[in-house]
Write a structure and sequence with these properties.
The chain contains 16 helices and 20 strands.
């Protein structure tokens, strides 16, 4: 008996059913994928490890968490009534509101009966004789499916560095990507936080305002620009909603799939005064529009330097202690790591209860029962926060036992780095699809339109197979090789691969150094459409193995 409308999801554990589609993950990708599959009349089951839907916004509940792309853009566009009726309270929605939105979508489209919560997929093996995937979960399910769709997210496997003495700490520990549901009170406490990426930069000002003392352990400083968040002016909402389709279409036609106010002229053709005026304008706008300042910002180190130097100047203006300011000034190219977005980050270092420790100069040696030790000092805390990021893009897939045709393991196939065709499929793994996989625009784009484009493409493909009486689709090895080369060649002339970022897997010891996302949303969409229009160029489509 389905539990229609229940937020607890479907009953699970021990199921041996057969489905057209198994979807792994109930974040924004999994929810929309399920909706599309049901619209097309396919049977589908979603397995979700968490005890709720929402993915990224379910797990990342740390103080200050919010989106860095305008909510009017970082939202579904597949349903006109949904986009007209949903009201965002702020320009950049906070985590709780995004989670409400995910739950609303699950309610509105009655998705719950097909979502099994608290269930982690442990393995997916392709059974060649039966032409089916056999999927197992940690709850004892052993189901089969014609198609498996990985909606597992790009930033879903957390990274906690394996410091000596890690488990010895006697106080409370947290990871920003696995934050508890209950509010955490830091009042009167001595808190240490490791990391200065986006998660740390959003949470540090909020925690510092509460804690007795906050010590920030920084290995690499990051560039951050102000969010200038606040309520969305009513006239802006009215204007967008009056013609939402055109607004979406204009954004979808950009390299990021978002309105980033891109300028086609170059930084170096302008005088220093003109450039400063432009960067001031961007600083006042805030958020990711900084990427769009000039066409050569991501391709010419000299142009990039001008924007980087502008932000360093802002840090030196804001932070009163010149030694601390200098420590906070990044020396990497602007944008080689995702530019962070903050509310009062640099100013937080003017507080008397905040200390910045440079662990590039004196690395963390060990976690101790009372805090941690660096190469030159010891620190004591009540609470220790790991804002140390994720095993991005491949981590979650590699932690599952995925085996394709002839029993080949994905871990082995990707031992030297992930290889996909269009970020969507892997040669040797028939009817396995990845949403926002390595080799797709994903994290270099507005994730919501990227997700919707993938879901639409996969749905259209699975429907095409059914209409043609076909069953199997598999990427050709040569098409995959060419795509991997193209992804690398697109990134190579830019500043993107020039620093130790998670785009390259450089944050995880031993992970192959490969640039994973694809730069260019609009050309990517055109390529996917062209592939489908040409009869799924680069794929082999075939009939059921046992068709008479
Ligand atoms: O993770 P990160 P994040 N010793 O990997 C440090 C998205 N996001 O969770 O740079 C000492 O960026 C590490 O140092 P280093 C967004 O796409 C979006 O903050 O490797 N330090 C770094 O400072 C973002 O890019 C929003 O030298 C260690 C930090 O930990 C992505 O998620 C908000 C260390 C990790 O930073 C990840 O962001 C939040 C060690 N052994 C996140 N190991 C929005 O605004 C790691 N570090 C929408």
């Amino acid at each position: 008996m389905p539990n229609l409308g229940s937020k607890s999801g479907a009953n699970g554990g021990g199921s041996a059913a057969s489905y057209d589609v198994v979807i792994v993950g109930a974040g924004f990708a999994g929810l929309y994928m399920l909706h599309k599959m049901r619209q097309l009349g396919f049977s589908a089951r979603v397995f979700e490890a968490g005890d709720g839907v929402g993915g990224t916004w379910f797990w990342n509940r740390y103080p200050g968490a919010r989106v860095d792309i305008q909510s009017l853009e970082y939202s579904y566009q597949f349903d006109e009534d949904l986009q007209q009726q949903w009201e965002w309270s702020e320009r950049y929605a906070p985590q709780g509101e995004l989670l409400d939105y995910a739950n609303h979508v699950a309610d509105r489209f009655k998705l719950w009966p097909d979502i099994q919560l608290n269930t982690r997929v442990t393995s997916a093996h392709f059974d060649e004789a039966a032409d089916l995937w056999r999927v197992r979960t940690d709850q004892g399910d052993a189901v089969s499916a014609t198609n498996v769709i990985m909606a597992t997210g790009c930033l879903s496997s957390t990274n906690t560095p394996n410091f000596e003495g890690l488990s010895s700490f006697k106080g409370r520990t947290f990871h920003t990507g696995r934050w508890p549901k209950e509010p955490v009170d830091f009042t009167g406490r001595r808190v240490g936080i490791i990391g200065t990426g986006s998660s740390a930069i959003q949470s540090i000002p909020v925690i510092a305002a509460e804690a007795a003392h906050l010590t920030v352990f920084q290995r690499t400083p990051n560039y951050s620009v102000p969010a200038h968040n606040g309520p969305i002016p009513e006239e802006v909402v009215r204007k967008v909603k009056a013609n939402y389709a055109d607004f979406r279409a204009a954004n979808n036609n950009t390299a990021l799939g978002a309105d980033w106010d891109y300028r086609a002229d170059t930084a170096l053709e302008h005088t220093p005064e003109e450039r400063t005026a432009e960067y001031e304008r961007r600083w006042a706008m805030g958020v990711l529009s900084f990427y769009g300042s000039y066409a050569d910002l991501l391709t010419d180190p000299e142009a990039n330097y001008t924007a980087a130097e502008f932000i360093r100047g802002k840090i030196r203006q804001i932070v009163k202690d010149p030694v601390v300011a200098e420590k906070l000034c990044p020396t990497t190219a602007l944008g080689c790591k995702r530019i962070c977005v903050d509310t009062g980050y640099y100013d937080t270092y003017n507080r008397p209860n905040v200390t910045l420790v440079d662990v590039n100069a004196a690395p963390i040696v060990a976690v101790t029962p009372t805090g941690l030790r660096t190469a030159d000092a010891a620190y004591d805390f009540d609470d220790l926060i790991f804002a140390t990021g994720f095993d991005a893009m491949t981590g979650t897939l590699m932690r599952m036992d995925i085996r394709g045709a002839r029993g080949v393991s994905l871990k082995d196939e990707w031992a030297e780095g992930p290889k996909t065709y269009l970020g969507l499929c892997v040669a040797g793994f028939p009817n396995l699809f990845i949403i926002a996989g390595p080799g797709s625009p994903s994290v270099l784009s507005n994730m919501l339109p990227s997700i919707e484009q993938h879901v639409n493409w996969i749905s259209q493909t699975v429907d095409h197979l059914r209409k043609q009486g076909l069953k199997r689709i598999e990427a050709k090895a040569q098409a995959q090789e060419e795509w991997v080369t193209h992804v690398n060649e697109t990134a190579a002339p830019t500043i993107l691969p020039t620093c130790n970022s998670w785009y390259l897997g450089a944050n995880i010891p031993g992970k192959p150094r490969v640039f994973m996302p694809y730069l260019g949303f609009a050309p990517y969409v055109a390529k996917c459409d062209e592939v489908a229009a040409k009869g799924y160029e680069g794929f082999v489509l075939s009939a059921p193995a046992h068709a008479s």
